[in-house]
Design goal:
By secondary structure, the protein is α/β, with parallel strands linked by helices. Helices cover 25% and strands 36% of the residues.
Length: 442
């Protein structure tokens, strides 16, 4: 069999082939096979967009673009390099990043970290090399934050995971430049199942950025990632996603962080593409005075159903959280905020605030808000507010009276609506987001 391509569909034999190609230890193969059984037994989600047209048998679960991950850009195969050159990945690495990973199809093709950071004990490797080179640390956390049994798609990822990053930031190390991973699906009917595992040790800091794209095909592809994060005491973890999948991609992911005493977790999530997205980054505030923040922006247009939100679980006392969700719907697009905030009996004197803002640009688009709030202590301070609006006619008239045409005025107001999220992005990504919004508004 060609090592680079496995036939479509999912069977126990295919899972064994993936594990064999990766030369994994026996415990990982056992983990995969158990996860496959869980996947088969789990029902499809009972909420959110319909997934009835998702055909698991039509998916390629593994396409290997090259034999190994390279640490030098010039060693990456030319056709893959040209794709990432066009996306600006190496240019970003030279400009403002501490390290970069690039995934093409099912594998990381490139992973690089500046040498002086390696000397500090920072680990930034492909997930496969993380397993091979740091098995004890890897095994301690892998599958513990997002177990295979969590949902059908976490089980699927656990069975067929391939690609992604393994990151460890040692005690006391504060990385002042971001690490980035870029994920590209370039083939038709592809399933991409990267797995990211990040550990920030005590009193450390990391900002991790991921970008996602895919070309347009007439048939559907599936992206089903799992992200596991553990933020130890007094550490701060920032995770930024800028997603621009094509409209033939099902984007069904599970992202979760455990946050210890005095630690902070910050998700910044921007969703502009895909056919269907179901994504609800979760934070478990497990230590006293832990903090969590989730800010998101979704843009849904014709043929898109973006079902995204946030999950916050206050487990320890004096914890705090903030959720800011913004969505824009155009030309019949459907945008939904779906969130959970739970403050447990033991989370005394905790604080939480959720704000949902939706902007609808026409009479055919839809915006939904489905919050679930479970507050189990009287000492908590909890706020929730939601607002749906349209383009303000008075503001539009004012801008037009100043010589700005209607299209430019609309773009200005939409960029203003998105600004609270945009300004949180690094400058290079903020510029890219504004450019993408302008393209979506054409």
């Amino acid at each position: 069999m060609n090592k680079n391509i496995i036939k479509k569909g999912l069977t126990e034999k295919i899972i064994k082939e993936i594990s064999s190609f990766k030369e994994e230890p026996s415990w990982m193969l056992e983990f995969r096979l158990k996860s496959f059984e869980i996947f088969k037994s789990k029902p499809m989600p009972s909420f959110g967009p319909s997934l009835k047209d998702l055909d698991f048998d039509s998916i390629n679960y593994y396409i290997r673009p090259q034999d190994k991950t390279h640490t030098k850009w010039e060693d990456v195969p030319k056709n893959i390099k040209e794709t990432f050159d066009h996306l600006g990945v190496p240019e970003s690495e030279r400009g403002f990043l501490a390290g970069t990973g690039a995934q093409f199809e099912s594998e990381m093709v490139y992973h690089s970290l500046k040498e002086h950071l390696i000397d500090q004990g920072i680990i930034f490797e492909s997930i496969e090399n993380g397993l091979k080179n740091h098995e004890e640390l890897f095994k301690k956390y892998f599958g513990k934050i997002v177990p295979a049994s969590d949902n059908k798609f976490s089980a699927l990822n656990s069975a067929v995971w391939s690609g992604g990053s393994f990151i460890y930031i040692p005690k006391g190390i504060k990385l002042d430049m971001p690490l980035q991973a870029y994920f590209r699906m370039n083939s038709e009917n592809l399933g991409q199942f990267e797995r990211t595992l990040i550990i920030t040790d005590e009193d450390s800091f990391l900002h991790y950025i991921e970008g996602c794209t895919a070309p347009v095909y007439t048939t559907d592809s599936l992206h089903s990632a799992v992200v596991e994060i553990i933020a130890h005491e007094n550490s701060r973890m920032e995770y930024t996603t800028l997603q621009n999948w094509s409209k033939n991609v099902y984007n069904l992911v599970t992202k979760r962080a455990f946050v210890k005493k005095n630690a902070e977790m910050y998700w910044l999530d921007v969703n502009l593409g895909s056919k269907i997205t179901m994504k609800y980054p979760a934070i478990y505030l497990m230590g006293e005075k832990a903090k969590g923040e989730i800010q998101s922006l979704a843009f849904a247009e014709k043929g898109q159903n973006i079902d995204a939100g946030a999950k916050i679980f206050h487990i320890a006392k004096k914890t705090s959280s903030l959720v800011l969700s913004k969505s824009i719907s155009k030309n019949g697009g459907i945008s939904t905020y779906r969130g959970i905030t739970k403050i447990s009996e033991d989370a005394n004197f905790s604080k939480s605030k959720t704000t949902c803002d939706a902007l609808i640009l026409d009479n055919t688009s839809i915006s939904n808000t489905y919050p679930t709030n479970d507050i189990r202590t009287n000492s908590a301070n909890f706020e929730h507010e939601a607002k749906v609006s349209r383009i303000n006619d008075e503001k539009l008239h004012y801008l037009k009276s100043r010589g700005i045409n209607e299209k430019e005025a609309n773009t200005m107001m939409i960029n203003g609506f998105a600004d609270p999220i945009t300004k949180k992005l690094p400058m290079e990504y903020a510029v890219e987001l504004n450019r993408l919004i302008e393209l979506y508004l054409k």
